Amino acid sequence: MKINITYIINSIISGVLAVLISTFFAGGAIAENYTDKTWVAPEFFVILLIWALGLLVCLLIYRGKARGMYLFLSILITWASIPLVVQLGARLATAS
Fold first, then answer.
1. What separation in angstroms does the CA of 11 have from each of 30, 35, 48, 50?
2. In angstroms, rounded to a whole number, what is the distance separating the alpha carbons of residues 8 and 55?
3. For the segment 36-51, what is each residue's pLDDT rounded down to a tens digit?
């Protein structure tokens, strides 16, 4: 089975951004960290989990019969999951 290069490039770029954004927010963003903890708000690592689930769904769609829409769905799921889960992580961080 041959995977489209656009799918790989999208996965790499969105994955790198998901890792950078989640570690930035989990480390306390630009606020000063007065604790000795490395990860002040580990709730933001949920970004990586949701992104990986979106990537898995896209891979399953690609392997299935719906190949015509797989690129659009992979872009939509992987990129839309980042800002949506940032909001979810912020709500989880402020709730505790």
1. 27, 34, 12, 13
2. 11
3. 777 777 888 888 888 8
9, burial (CB in 10 Å: exposed 0-12, middle 13-18, buried 19+) = exposed
Q: Give the number of other Cβ atoms within 10 Å of residue 73's Cβ.
A: 15
Residue 19: count of CB within 10 angstroms of its CB: 14
Of 89, 82, 84, the closest CA to residue 52 belongs to: 82
Question: Distance between CA atoms of 32 and 61, rounded to whole angstroms?
Answer: 43
Angle formed by the axes of helices 5-26 and 70-95, nearest 10°: 10
One-letter amino acid for residue 6 of the chain: T
Could you tell me the pTM of the whole model? 0.70
Q: How far apart are CA 88 and CA 82, in angstroms?
A: 10
Q: How far apart are the first and last CA of the chain?
A: 46
